[in-house]
Amino acid sequence: MNDILLKTLDGQLVERPPVWLMRQAGRILPQYRAVRSNMKSFKDLVKNPVKAAEVTIQPVDELGVDAAILFSDILVIPEAMGLDYNLVEKKGPMFPTTIQSWDDIAALIDGEEAALKLEYVYNAITETKDQLNDRVPLIGFTGAPWTLFCYMLEGEGSKTFSKARRFLYQHPEWSHKLLQKISATVAEYLKIQIEKGVDCVQIFDSWAGCLGTQQYHEFGLKYIRWILEQLPENTRTIVFSKGAHASMEELLDLPCKALGFDWQIEAEYIASQVNGQKVVQGNLDPCVLYADNEEIVRSTQRLLSVFKGGHIVNLGHGVYPDTPLSGVKKFVDEVKSFRY
Ligand code: 1CP
Question: If you measure from the C-alpha of residue 39 to the centroid of ligand 1, how many angstroms do you get, rounded to a whole number?
């Protein structure tokens, strides 16, 4: 197996850093769009283990990345808890009903009962591990409680997440109850993913940055910490809290192996703060990949030069859907030809 990702997470020496891209499965590959266009909907694809495995492996074949990330979505969790979603073409996810009241929260199922509804995800893991045949590790993932809370309150993406944030002020106790139920589900969900064979797990807190630090500690990080504490010892864990730089100290204190960072914070600053306490994942601006080859090489080399190890090369957020494949390949190839 190409195990440089796992070695890096385990603190072992490698000759170059591993590279993969958040949102590498789907979106950018013509092969993905071909599979997708033959399925009725996004959800049909997510719920079809053979097809999900196929699109999970496409970026490994096409881009030569050092890890696969399971093709699924963070929104399968609210669905398993009882909040159905649809994916509206060109608009994104929409929940026909949202959480409004204590009764809505009480009606949600949670923990193991909810996690067991995600059988199709576990089957996709088994199928992917089979098809991958140990070429590269498989990353499992979940949304963080706060980010899932955002969708369950807003019903869709948002620029301000003001419905979700307002709920924290108006109903702090209800908010904690909902975050507890989400966390109990996420912990069981990750435990089963690990049992089924994922080699590491990433927690995506995509909307961490819309909270102030005090609120992020109380309603965000507290629950991420609790989830991490439920996982088997030595689980390889990556926490990506987008926009949460102001909580650096608290992030460093989490019981995880790696922290993902977005591009709005300088790599040098990250390296100086982290100082070997965690593996660092990131943090090239996804927009660099629209630039010409010279700029892609320059920016990638600059990023590579900052870390002397303990680094997983990635973008600072998911690759954008219209990114030219040539730019993505230049970036991956540049990392793969680098040596410490
Ligand atoms: O038909 C399609 O192709 C729909 C587009 C799509 C895809 C390919 C959605 C809808 N989800 C996914 C897959 C997905 N989502 C993966 C696995 C495959 C991959 O590598 O792309 C992963 C890891 C996610 C995670 C995800 N979903 C996050 C966290 C990461 C991030 O980018 O911040 C979030 C916030 C979502 C919600 C979601 N699902 C889909 C969309 C368009 C969105 C974002 C909506 C918004 O901006 O609020």
Answer: 17
